[in-house]
Design a protein that fits this description.
With 149 residues, the protein is α/β, with parallel strands linked by helices. It has helices spanning 34-45, 52-66, 68-77, 89-97, 118-124, 138-144; strands spanning 4-7, 14-18, 27-30, 81-87, 102-112, 125-135. The chain folds into 2 domains: 4-66, no CATH class; 71-147, no CATH class. It has 6 helices and 6 strands, in the order βββαααβαβαβα. The strands form 2 sheets. Strands 1-2-3 form a 3-stranded antiparallel β-sheet, covered by helices on one side. This is CopG family transcriptional regulator.
């Protein structure tokens, strides 16, 4: 189950971090109108949701489930790895040694290991598309910037 941590500041948008521990989440900010926010607070005060974050997490999950057919069709058309995918130095070196370049497509979290030098990433990765979050060193992100959609 996913933990949600809510940052609370009066007069500020709701900020939510999804994940179990630092490094396993991406922080998002949701701007809501006053009336919508009031409805959320009413549902929380009535005990329908534990807090604003619980409401947002539930709403996001419901929308993902509602549109699951679109996800399935998209994955069928263009294969994509779903979840966490880690690319290490050995895998990129093997691709480079074989004379192939990787076309990376991830829905979730793509991690390029810290021990991967920028020149290796540049040589071994032909394209990269991440729907979610990419974790890589700043140098690797710089050399791959022109390969991102």
């Amino acid at each position: 189950m996913m933990d949600v941590v809510q940052e609370r500041r009066p007069d500020a948008p709701i900020a939510v971090r999804f994940g179990a521990k630092p490094g396993d989440h991406e922080k998002i900010t949701v701007n809501l109108g006053f009336v919508d926010l009031g409805h959320v607070d009413l549902l929380v005060s009535e005990g329908v949701y534990a807090n604003r974050s619980d409401f947002i997490r539930t709403a996001v999950r419901n929308q993902i489930e509602r549109h699951a057919d679109i996800t399935r069709q998209s994955v069928a058309r263009k294969p994509i790895e779903v979840g966490l995918r880690r690319y290490g130095r050995a895998e990129l070196e093997a691709a480079q040694a074989a004379g192939t370049r990787l076309d990376i497509r991830v829905l979730g979290l793509a991690v390029i290991a810290d021990d991967v030098p920028a020149d290796l990433a540049s040589a071994a990765i032909a394209s990269i598309e991440v729907l979610g979050s990419l974790q890589a060193s700043p140098a690797v992100k710089r050399v791959l910037a022109d390969r991102l959609p």
